[in-house]
Design goal:
Oligomer: single chain
Number of helices: 3
Mean pLDDT: 96
Shape: elongated
Helix content: over 70%
Strand content: under 5%
Length: 88
């Protein structure tokens, strides 16, 4: 495979090779592709987990298992007040 890169990417690769960590451009690109693959896998897992949480939340709402927003804010303010008092 033969690819053309923008000058800025070629410079990036050359800078990495100059550190001595990589012997050639292929090693830099292989590392970059492995990191991209890991990131995409992690993102896909996060996406699936988030979808499940949303579905669970929506099911709770449909069952009526909800707390009024003002109650939640009051509870959070109380926790914050207690935390501040504990620091004093």
């Amino acid at each position: 495979m033969n690819i053309q890169l923008k000058a800025e990417y070629e410079q990036f690769i050359q800078t990495r090779i100059a550190t001595g960590k990589y012997e050639n451009a292929e090693e830099v690109i292989v590392k970059a592709l492995k990191l991209l693959e890991e990131w995409e896998k992690g993102y896909q897992e996060w996406e699936e987990e988030t979808k499940k949480k949303l579905e669970a939340g929506l099911a709770s709402i449909e069952r009526g298992d909800v707390v009024d927003g003002e109650v939640v804010i009051a509870q959070l303010e109380e926790k914050l007040r207690k935390a501040r008092e504990a620091q004093e």
